[in-house]
Design a protein that fits this description.
Layout (H helix, E strand, L loop, with lengths): L14 H6 L1 H4 L5 H10 L1 E5 L5 H11 L3 E5 L24 H12 L4 E5 L8 H5 L4 E4 L4 H14 L3 E7 L2 E7 L10 H4 L12 H4 L3 H20 L8 E6 L4 E6 L21 H5 L4 H7 L3 E2 L1 H13 L4 E5 L3 H6 L5 E3 L2 H5 L15 E5 L4 H12 L6 E3 L2 H8 L8
Parallel strand pairs: 1-2, 1-4, 2-3, 4-5, 9-13, 10-11, 10-12, 12-13
Antiparallel strand pairs: 5-6, 6-7, 7-8
Length: 402
């Protein structure tokens, strides 16, 4: 549905700006007025990662006058496969600073505002204040719900995107601008169960998919700023890179939505980590008192080599992850085998006296698997807090991280 332009036009474009944006200016729907609106726009991009990288570069190239970057992380070598705003020389540098340098190289007429901090309940209103539009490139559910709620409470529309492996989604949420428009909670009233949806860090993502979805987000942002076309308000765009297929689904406002429904129960920011849950209650209960450090595991492995300790170390990641790096002496049984019950036949029997030690990449999946085998009678089973990430960082930095 078409909606009025979000931004009033700037007073003028300089001769250099006219030259730079000439291919926009000759499009009748954009023209001089549309380009002046872009110049006057203030857009906040959350994250300078997979989605934020193409979004920031194309927003800058399009002539958005003020670009805010909300990003607290540093550039890691594993980012470079998809986060095209950063380069090899940026490894170890603040992502916000690296992104700003790339933006100014692409378009020196852009005013870049850095918010080099982790968004949370204490600062999100302050960071969002003054922006016309938000482009959400976050990669976890807790932050997505916080962004949605804060944007709604402040009356700021935002463009959302999500990516995983070969699949991407995008939509526009503007319930305060369009009567009857849904918010993110209308689409996803509840977060998925903890551990059900792996992050990109756990499941991977095709690098070029970021460009596909990030470009869609910028396309929607330009339409919102200039008032052209029909933004994807009340629509969910779904892209399958393997099948090269696009679908659009209608998303209707939920009258029972906790935020924007007829009888809202959320009128302020909530505890989003608790709402989304890093791990299930069962996993948290299982891990309580049954979590060991990688340092402890290192001592246990030495004792096993000496014959003074008997245990089996089980890696619950996926086979492709196991190929990248391993904790020496581990065997692979993916988490799915625990959830469907097949793993139990591959473990020592409960009464064998052999302890079971589980690990994954960071400790989330292994906690979920731990809950399964605790329920099956493996009372002395433990899992490794921090998983392979902690092992590589603290014990064996010669192995590649991912």
């Amino acid at each position: 549905m078409s909606i009025p332009a979000l931004v009033e036009p700037a007073d003028e474009l300089t001769i250099d700006e006219v030259r730079r944006y000439s291919r926009h200016l000759i499009i009748p729907d954009v023209g001089m007025t549309g380009q002046k609106r872009l110049k006057n726009a203030k857009v906040l991009v959350i994250g300078a990662g997979g989605l934020g990288s193409p979004a920031l570069l194309y927003l800058a190239a399009a002539g958005v006058g003020t670009l805010g970057i909300a990003e607290f992380d540093e550039v890691d070598e594993s980012n470079l496969q998809r986060q095209i705003i950063h380069g090899q020389s940026d490894v170890g540098k603040s992502k916000a600073v690296s992104a700003k340098e790339s933006i100014l190289e692409a378009n020196p007429y852009v005013n870049v505002v850095l918010h080099d901090e982790r968004l949370d309940n204490d600062n999100v209103f302050r960071v969002f204040e003054g922006y016309d539009l938000i482009v959400d490139g976050t990669d976890n559910f807790a932050t997505r719900y916080m962004v949605n709620d804060a944007a709604y409470l402040l009356g700021i529309p935002y463009v959302w995107g999500s990516i995983y492996r070969f699949d991407g989604q995008a939509s526009v949420f503007a319930p305060k601008q369009v009567e009857g428009a849904p918010c993110y909670r209308c689409l996803y009233p509840e977060p998925p169960p903890p551990g059900m949806v792996p992050s990109c860090a756990e499941g991977g993502v095709l690098g070029v998919l970021c460009a596909s979805i990030g470009s869609i987000q910028v396309n929607e942002a330009i339409k919102l700023i200039t008032g052209i076309g029909d933004p994807a308000v009340g629509e969910l765009v779904i892209y399958d890179a393997l099948e090269l297929s696009w679908r659009k689904l209608k998303v209707r406002k939920d009258p029972n939505c906790a935020l924007c429904g007829e009888n809202p129960t959320v009128d302020a920011l909530i505890d989003y980590e608790t709402f989304c849950g890093a791990i299930s209650d069962e996993a948290a209960d299982a891990a309580a008192g049954s979590t060991i450090s990688v340092t402890t595991l290192e001592h246990m492995l030495k004792e096993r080599e000496e014959g003074s300790r008997d245990f089996v170390l089980v890696d619950v990641r996926e086979p492709n992850e196991y190929e990248i790096n391993q904790i020496p002496g581990s065997v692979l049984i993916p988490k799915g085998e625990f959830l469907n019950g097949n793993a139990l036949s591959q473990l020592p029997s409960v009464d064998s006296g052999t302890q079971v030690v589980l690990h994954c990449k960071s400790g989330v999946r292994s906690a979920e698997a731990l809950a399964v085998i605790k329920g099956a009678g493996y009372d002395d089973a433990v899992h490794v807090g921090g998983g392979v990430v902690a092992w590589v960082n603290q014990i064996d930095p010669s192995q590649p991280s991912y």
